[in-house]
Design goal:
Length: 332
C-alpha cells in the first residue's frame, strides 16, 4: 500500500499541482492530512473540468475517477471561468451528494490553489475564484458522549482482550486530553516529560498536552506490556507510544477500528461516535464540569481560531436551564 507521501508526490497529477503541494508542505507547513485532502479535492476538480470542457473525447466513456489529468497544463486553468467553477459545485451537489460543508472545503482548496498560482508562483494573471462564493453554513453543535456514557465506554475498554490495556489507554487519552486522531498516533515516548507531552498538531504546530492522573495511570500500565516486546518493534517505530499488532506505529485506521469496537461493546451507536467525537466529548466535559474558560480550552485543543472553540459554549443546556430558573419571575 502506498504511503500518504507517495500518494501526494507522484506522476498521476500535473506538475503545477506537485509544485503547489511542495509550497504547502515547505512554506506553509501544512500537515500531510491537509495535503492529502487537497490532493483529492483538486484532482476531482481537474477531472471534472477535463470532461466538462471535452478536452479528450475518450473521457466521456470513463467514470470520472478514471480520467487521467497528469498531462494537463496551466493552459487549462487559463480558460476557466466563474461559471465553470459553479458548474463544478453543482456537480458536487447533484452527482456526488456533497453537502454544504463538503462543498465549502473543496471551494477553500480551489481558492487556495489559485491564490498560490496568481500571487506566489505568479504563473497566472487572472484568478477566476475571486467572486466564487461558498455555501452558507449553519452552526453545528458537536456530537459527544455524556459523562455517564464516557464512563461506560472506559469500563467497556477494560476487557480481557489481548490489546485491551493498550486500547484502554488510547480511549483514556482521547476522553481526557482532547487529542486529534493524527496526534494520538504520532505520540513519541521521548516527548513525554513527567506530566507533559509534546505533540505536533494541525499545521505542524507544536503544543504541550498536560496529562492528568487517569492518563498517566493508563499510560504507565501499558508501557511495561509495550516494552516487553521492544525487540519486535520496527526500528523506525521504537519511539512510538502506541504499537499495532504488527509491531509498527499504530495508524489511524486501526485506532478508528479500536474505538468503533469498544463503542459497540459499551452498547453505544458505533456509527455515531468516532475518535473525533471523543475529542468533542473531552472538550465538552472540560467546559461543562471543569469550569475551563474558552481561551484555555482553545489552547488545550490547539485551535488556531477561537471561533472554532466557541461551539462548546452552546452545548451545556443545563446551564441555560438554570439561568432561566434564576429569573426572579420564575416562581410566579
Amino acid at each position: 500500500m502506498k504511503s500518504d507521501i507517495e500518494n501526494i508526490y507522484n506522476n498521476d497529477i500535473p506538475n503545477f499541482l506537485n509544485d503547489y503541494f511542495n509550497y504547502l508542505a515547505t512554506i506553509k507547513g501544512s500537515s500531510i492530512n491537509t495535503i492529502v485532502a487537497y490532493t483529492a479535492d483538486l484532482s476531482l476538480l481537474l477531472k471534472f473540468i477535463k470532461v466538462y470542457k471535452g478536452l479528450d473525447p475518450s473521457d466521456k466513456s470513463l467514470p470520472i475517477e478514471k480520467v487521467i489529468i497528469s498531462g494537463l497544463t496551466l493552459d487549462t486553468l487559463k480558460t476557466l471561468t466563474l461559471q465553470d467553477l459553479y458548474a463544478f459545485v453543482t456537480y458536487l451537489g447533484k452527482q456526488r451528494a456533497n453537502g454544504n460543508y463538503a462543498k465549502a472545503r473543496k471551494i477553500a482548496a480551489i481558492k487556495s490553489l489559485f491564490k498560490y498560482l496568481t500571487t506566489k508562483a505568479k504563473v497566472l494573471t487572472l484568478d477566476p475564484t475571486i467572486d466564487l462564493e461558498s455555501p452558507k453554513l449553519g452552526k453545528r453543535s458537536p456530537v459527544f458522549l455524556t459523562l455517564d456514557e464516557s464512563k461506560t465506554l472506559l469500563e467497556a475498554s477494560n476487557s480481557r482482550d489481548k490489546h485491551s490495556i493498550r486500547d484502554h489507554s488510547i480511549i483514556t487519552l482521547f476522553l481526557n486530553c482532547g487529542l486529534r486522531l493524527s496526534e494520538l498516533c504520532s505520540i513519541n515516548i521521548s516527548a513525554m516529560k513527567n506530566d507533559t507531552l509534546s505533540i505536533i498538531g494541525k499545521g505542524n504546530k507544536e503544543r504541550t498536552i498536560y496529562l492528568n492522573r487517569a492518563s498517566l495511570k493508563a499510560i504507565h500500565k501499558y508501557l511495561p506490556i509495550r516494552n516487553a516486546e521492544i525487540d519486535k518493534i520496527h526500528d523506525e517505530d521504537k519511539d512510538a507510544l502506541f504499537i499495532s499488532g504488527k509491531f509498527g506505529r499504530i495508524n489511524k485506521r486501526t485506532v478508528e477500528r479500536i474505538v468503533k469496537k469498544h463503542i459497540g461493546n459499551a452498547g453505544l451507536n458505533k456509527n455515531k461516535y468516532t475518535p473525533h467525537k471523543l475529542r468533542h466529548t473531552s472538550a465538552t466535559l472540560m467546559y461543562k464540569y471543569g469550569n475551563v474558560d474558552i481561551r484555555s480550552l482553545q489552547e488545550i485543543l490547539g485551535h488556531e481560531n477561537i471561533s472554532t472553540t466557541q461551539i462548546y459554549t452552546h452545548v451545556d443546556n443545563e446551564k441555560l436551564r438554570n439561568a432561566v430558573k434564576s429569573n426572579p419571575l420564575s416562581d410566579d
